Design the sequence.
C-alpha cells in the first residue's frame, strides 16, 4: 500500500506518509476513512511531540520552546505556538520581565513552513546573559592583538599626550580594562533591519606593583550596532545565526580618581575597544546560533529570512527523512 495525500495540507501529511502508512493498512480496511483520518492526526501529533521543549545552549542559558496553545489543524495548514524564551539554567522557571508582541496574521503561503520569531526572544537572551554576568570581561595587556599594541598598548605612557593626569599619577604603568554591561542588551527589528545596543562601563585600572591595582576612572558606554540574520545547519540542527556590525559608541565619565577630564579625548580608543573586543565577543554568541524547533527527521531546504516590524520569518521548504 502506497499512501499519498492530495489537497489542503497534503504536503504535510506526505512528509510522514512512510510513518502513517503502516497504521493505515489495517485502519482503512477495517474501520473506514474517518478512523484513517484519525490515524493521520495521531501520527502528526506524534511528530509534533518530537519538537524540543528545552534546549541547553551553554553553561548559562537555555531556550524554552514549550507549546503555549493546542496545535491548530485546518484543511490548509497546521499552526503551533511556542514560548520561544531564554531562561537561566540556574533558574529555569524565572521569566524575563518582558512582554512579547502580538504577531500579524499570516499573509503568504508560498513555502511549506513559516517560523515566526519576535524580537522578544532576542531580548530575553539579553536579559539572561546580563543576569548571569556572562558579558563581563577583563582585558589585560597581553590580550591586545600584536598588530595593535603600538597604538593601543595598555600602558599609561600611551595616554601621556592627551590624558596627562593619568600618566602623571601613574607613570609608565600597565593597565587593565574591566568591561561590564550595566543593563541587558536591547534588540529592535524595525524598518527592515536589525539594530541593537549594549549599555555598560569600562573600568580603567592601573597595575601599581606588588600585584595590586588602583582604580583610575570609569567610563559609561552604550555600543550601537546593526546585524544580519541567517539560517544554517549543523549536523541535524537548524540554527538561527547572526553577525553584529559596529556603528558607534556613546560615552560619559562616571567616576574618576585622577580628576575631571573630557571623555572626548578617549573617543578613538573607546571606538577601537568596541570594534576589537565588544563586537567580536557578542559575535561568539551570535554565530554559535540558536537551535530552531524542528520535527525530528525534517530538513529545511532553501530557507530564507524575512525581516518584519518587530519580528522575523524563516520561510522554507522541507523534506522528511524517515
Sequence:
Amino acid at each position: 500500500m502506497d499512501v499519498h495525500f492530495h489537497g489542503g495540507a497534503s504536503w504535510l501529511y506526505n512528509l510522514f506518509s512512510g510513518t502513517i502508512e503502516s497504521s493505515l493498512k489495517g485502519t482503512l480496511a477495517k474501520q473506514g476513512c474517518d478512523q484513517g483520518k484519525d490515524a493521520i492526526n495521531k501520527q502528526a501529533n506524534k511528530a509534533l511531540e518530537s519538537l524540543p521543549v528545552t534546549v541547553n545552549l551553554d553553561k548559562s542559558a537555555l531556550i524554552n520552546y514549550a507549546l503555549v496553545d493546542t496545535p491548530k489543524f485546518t484543511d490548509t495548514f497546521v499552526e503551533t505556538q511556542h514560548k520561544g524564551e531564554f531562561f537561566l539554567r540556574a533558574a529555569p522557571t524565572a521569566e524575563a520581565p518582558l512582554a512579547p508582541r502580538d504577531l500579524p496574521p499570516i499573509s503568504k503561503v508560498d513555502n511549506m513552513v513559516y517560523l515566526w520569531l519576535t524580537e522578544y526572544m532576542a531580548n530575553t537572551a539579553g536579559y539572561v546573559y546580563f543576569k548571569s554576568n556572562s558579558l563581563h570581561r577583563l582585558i589585560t595587556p597581553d590580550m591586545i592583538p600584536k598588530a595593535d599594541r603600538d597604538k593601543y598598548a595598555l600602558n599609561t605612557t600611551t595616554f601621556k599626550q592627551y590624558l596627562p593626569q593619568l600618566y602623571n599619577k601613574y607613570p609608565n604603568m600597565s593597565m587593565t580594562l574591566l568591561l561590564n554591561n550595566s543593563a541587558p542588551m536591547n534588540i529592535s527589528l524595525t524598518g527592515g533591519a536589525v539594530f541593537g545596543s549594549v549599555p555598560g562601563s569600562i573600568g580603567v585600572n592601573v597595575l601599581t606593583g606588588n600585584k595590586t591595582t588602583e582604580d583610575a576612572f570609569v567610563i559609561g558606554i552604550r555600543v550601537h550596532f546593526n546585524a544580519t540574520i541567517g539560517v544554517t545547519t549543523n549536523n541535524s540542527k537548524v540554527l538561527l545565526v547572526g553577525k553584529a556590525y559596529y556603528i558607534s559608541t556613546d560615552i560619559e565619565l562616571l567616576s574618576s580618581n585622577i580628576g575631571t577630564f573630557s571623555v572626548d579625548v578617549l573617543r578613538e580608543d573607546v571606538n577601537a575597544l568596541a570594534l576589537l573586543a565588544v563586537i567580536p565577543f557578542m559575535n561568539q554568541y551570535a554565530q554559535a546560533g540558536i537551535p530552531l524547533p524542528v520535527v525530528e527527521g525534517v530538513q529545511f531546504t532553501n530557507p530564507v529570512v524575512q525581516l518584519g516590524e518587530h519580528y522575523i520569518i524563516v520561510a522554507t521548504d522541507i523534506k522528511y527523512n524517515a
The chain is about 25% helix and 35% strand. The longest strand covers residues 212-234. The CA atoms of residues 64 and 300 lie 21 Å apart. The radius of gyration is 26 Å.
